[in-house]
Amino acid sequence: MGNFLKEFREFAVKGNVVDLAVGLIIGAAFGRIVSSLVDDVIMPPIGLLLGQVDFSDLFINLSGGDFASLAAARAAGAPVIAYGSFINTIINFTIVAFAVFLLVKQVNRLRKLTGTEDKPAGPPPDVVLLTEIRDILATKPAVTPAPPPPPSAGPAGRPSR
User: Fold this and answer.
1) Contact 80, 74 (CB under 8 A)
2) From CA 146, how far away is CA 7, in angstroms rounded?
3) 26-77: per-residue pLDDT in tens?
4) What single DSSP character describes residue 55?
C-alpha cells in the first residue's frame, strides 16, 4: 500500500499532470464565459432579427400536453426535444473550437519565431554509427587479394632461370 501511495504521489506531482489540471480548470471557466457570451450576447440579437425568437426556449413537446415554455415542460416532467439549447451548444462549441484554433496557431507562430518548435528526433546513436560505417566502407575501393608469388623452382625441382 505504501508503494502504491508513493507511485501515486510521484505521478500527481509531475509537471504534466499539474499542467493538465490547470488547463482543465481554465478550460471549464472559459467554457462558462463562452456559454454566457452565446446565451446573453450573441443569441438575443439573432433572435430579435428572426422575429423575437428565444433559441434557448425552442423545444418539441413529445407528451401531447401544452406548455408555455421549456422550463414549464421540464417542471412537469414532460419529454421534450430541446433543439434551441442544442443550437446554443453548437454555437458554444464553434466559438471554443475557433478560440483554441487561434491559440494553437499563435503558439506555433511564437515557437517558429523563437526557434523552439518541436524538431523531429533523430535516429538513435547506434543507427547513426552504423550509417557512418556503411558510408566509410562504400567510399573505400574494394581490396583485391595480392597475386600469389611466382614459383621459385622449375618442373624437376631445379631452380628456373
Assistant:
1) yes
2) 66
3) 888 888 888 888 888 888 888 888 887 777 788 888 988 888 888 899 999 8
4) G
